[in-house]
Amino acid sequence: MIRNTTCLRFAQKAAVQSHFRPALHQVVRPKITMFARGKATAAPAPQLQQELSFKPIMTKQSAPVEEKQIADSLQITKKAGRAIYLDMQATSPIDPRVLDNMMPYMTESYGNPHSNTHSYGWETHDVVEESRENIAKLIGADSKEVIFTSGATESNNIAIKGVARFYKSKKRHVITTVTEHKCVLDSCRALEQEGFEVTYLPVQQNGLVDLELLKNTIRKDTVLVSIMAVNNEIGVIQPLEKIGTLCRENGVFFHTDAAQAVGKIPLDVNKMKIDLLSISGHKLYGPKGIGAIYVRRRPRVRIEAIQSGGGQERGIRSGTLPAALIAGLGSACQIAAQEMERDTKHIKKLFDRLYNGIKAKIPEIYVNGDMEARYYGNLNVSFAYIEGESLMMGLKDVACSSGSACTSATLEPSYVLRALGVEEDVAHSSIRFGIGRFTTEKEIDYAIELLTANVERLREMSPLWEMVKEGIDIKTIQWSQDK
Amino acid sequence: MLRSVSQFARVTRRAPTLVKATPIQHTALLTLPRAPLARSYHERVIDHYEKPRNVGSLNRQAANVGTGVVGAPACGDVMKLQIQVNEQTGVIEEAVFKTFGCGSAIASSSLATEWVKGKTLEEASAITNNEIATYLSLPPVKKHCSMLAEDAIKAAVRDLLDKREKGKTASA
Question: Where do the Aminotransferase class V domain residues begin and end (chain A) (predicted)?
Fold first, then answer.
């Protein structure tokens, strides 16, 4: 009886796993080998979209088109599969190896990691601790310093509000930059409501912080400096080590939102003198809904907890830990550590291909952000004289995002691009391409092709391009609706 | 054999049943049935975007051509609409446009050029943004695009009338 059940379960498990992850590693054995050691092959993920066997319709017809023809062209798009995903800064696909490692904790090992009286609890506790260790290793920390949260947004909230509130009796000043993620800016705004003083440092035209300015802004009562490692919109890498040294000299805590940086660029919290660091799971091929915060223990960073509860995670973040998501995050970090070199080479190659391809075929493009101090998985480029949303509409087989106002709910162009000093009309024409571990050369080539065709078409339609070709300086024109 | 059920269970327990039946296809797991454009445009907007009518330029200097340029690059919307009027009949015989703006803006101005053809100047001025917005099923956030198209038509008409005035005073 027992044998039959066992065999059946084993077969089911094998069947499920072989479909989830076709060829990469052997059957997972929980407890002994927690994480797959397989290396990524050239094309680890199976083909997620079928090849398109037609070109988008772009003929010029003067007669209006039949309803049926419109429906047909939409049908073709529906049938041909999904768009190419080039929006890695928004989120990333879960690495199949990560999913494999999460599965046992979604199915049979469902115990609460804090239940220390039975094996259901022990087994999930083990994976939580192993994940903690993997995350810590990736950033050069100790596992006791890693706290699990629901994502980088929560980590940023804890870092900024928690630290500021703890030291509020003596220190009332916080420094951040204008190009931070919304959750950091909003947390700072909340602190301002509580009576703190926040300085939002401007950035230079290349997106980097001016260190002299930072040095002069730090005061005796500054408690925290929060500067993100890699910017999500433009991809620039801030000089973390220099900032960290500056903060350590002045006795100020240094927090960095490393959601876009962890697992992609080498990070060492001791070398870079980072005191607090936010991690996001779904940016490094892990699951959504999980993140972590690194909180330094020597010298100790004290935090006032935002979330009250049973005192889990050193009292900083109460709540039952989601073992499955944590297994995913730990696995993603372990894979990232293993494959950072390979990923970096792969992504740089694709970045060069994309950038050179665009530059060769399309004139008047501007890359937003520094070219050298950059994470090459992010290319934010503005196409002058055309608007971003209309370009994205033409790029319907490519999933990317734009800094244009029309794509935001509030009709305001991207604040990060404005902070770089980019003109508003150029900010409207920006597109951000995200390249990742699973992006292929074919996808990049197709994107370039589509981009070239659409930019040409839209420039033909653009009055600004026409004016420029006639030699009129657009800046001198009095527009009818200038604000 | 018993090991693979659970290496950690010190007590035998009934293994939870996994999903039986057909194994899940990898693509099915990751490919959810979803419309191609989540925030989908109406078919007419897409049609005008893919096959815009009357993109081009007319001679600005000609006496029977009126040019209207509205909007501002800072707002992300600039429309240039030109109309050519038959001097004898007073009917608009040719209309072209160029637009810097989102898909809805392009569609609104393209539609505007279609609608003004064959109309007199008074009839063209009577076209409202509501008509354009309804025809293209524009969501509330895009209504300003149709507003701009209406402004463009009016600006072109006004430009033409101004030219006529100047022509009259010059010859008078």
Answer: 84-446
